[in-house]
Amino acid sequence: MSDRRPSKLKLHHRFQPLKRASKWPVWADVLARLSLAFALIGIVVLVHWIDRAGLKDNHDGHISFLDVVYFTMISVTTTGFGDIHPVSDRSRLIEAVIVTPIRIAVLFIFVGTAYNFVLKRTWEKWRMARIQAKLTDHIVVLGFGVSGSEAVKELIARGTDPSCIVVIDQSPTRIAEAEAMGCNVLQGDASNDDTLIDVHIARAQSVLVSAGRDDTSILMVLTVRHLSPKVPISVVIRAQDNELLARQAGANNVINPVSFTGLLLAGSAQGAHVADYMADLASIGGRVQLRERPVAAAEIGRSIDQLASEGRGLRIYRGGKPFGFWEPEAQSLAAGDLIVEVVRCEECEASVPGG
């Protein structure tokens, strides 16, 4: 059995070729394609010239070099006027075995070039313009590094439609990764006004900023807040000294992965399962989920312990100010309150043995 398993695994292995973005500009790609096409046509001209004795010209009976070029072009383009045609068996064999495959190759090159650089680009530009014009209530992710990509994966896992997510990054590789996930993408500088205007930042539901550098992230926050005074902004800041700057720039939520890691470590020191539960709360893959929502009409006047969702209420936000579940304000919910609660993740529980 042990000898058969490796071969079985090989049968199911799917080869994934390496991919790398081309560094050629568009004009160089077009020039290379056309050069190949004309090189193939040149081969046909040479073959016809060598075998010109097998061709017949119904006009004057003489085959000149100009006649060969003319016959080659109408032959390759399948026009076929019939004034020049092969008459010998060898010429007909050459047309069938050599010229016809080259003719097909040249047609593929021209049609492929027209599709890639005219039809496809025009269609994609028109399609994306329509999508762009209709963007509203979407989530904009500025920076698709480790934090940004993980955030997008988590959003999708929580049920967010990838078509409602817009990713902006300057790296072609990262943009390709985001596009493969189904997101709308834009390669450009996310700290530039025009770039953010192009994705209708003022109509966004929220903005997630993770540029990899604190100074760049804070600049992006400033730019977003300048263009959209009310959109919620969450930003990843790695240096604690920059957290206040990020808030002053307009960020609603400042996330420090270093501090969060410290919290997990401290929690694990105080209890074997504290850090595990904190990670459970943060991820959609856990048995419980931490979420924020507006108070429901049926919950107005109730205590935070009597939520219609049957979740565990932890905190409310009233007028932008937080109140814990033990405070008097949380004992009578009011219209406009935001509730932070812990709810069961039934789908995740179903996959865990023993519930």
Helix and strand sequence: HHEHEHEHEHEHEHEHEHHEEEEH
The percentage of residues in β strands lies in 15-25%
Give the rounded overall mean pLDDT. 81
Counting DSSP H or I runs of 4 or more residues, the number of helices is: 12
What structural class is derived from the secondary structure elements?
A: alpha/beta
Radius of gyration: 32 Å
Strand order of the largest sheet: 5-4-3-6-7-8
The biggest beta sheet is recorded as: 6 strands, parallel
What is the share of helical residues? 40-55%
Shape: elongated
Low-confidence stretches: 1-13, 15-21, 347-355
Key features of this structure:
355 residues, elongated, single chain, six-stranded parallel β-sheet, disordered N terminus, disordered C terminus, alpha/beta, four-stranded antiparallel β-sheet
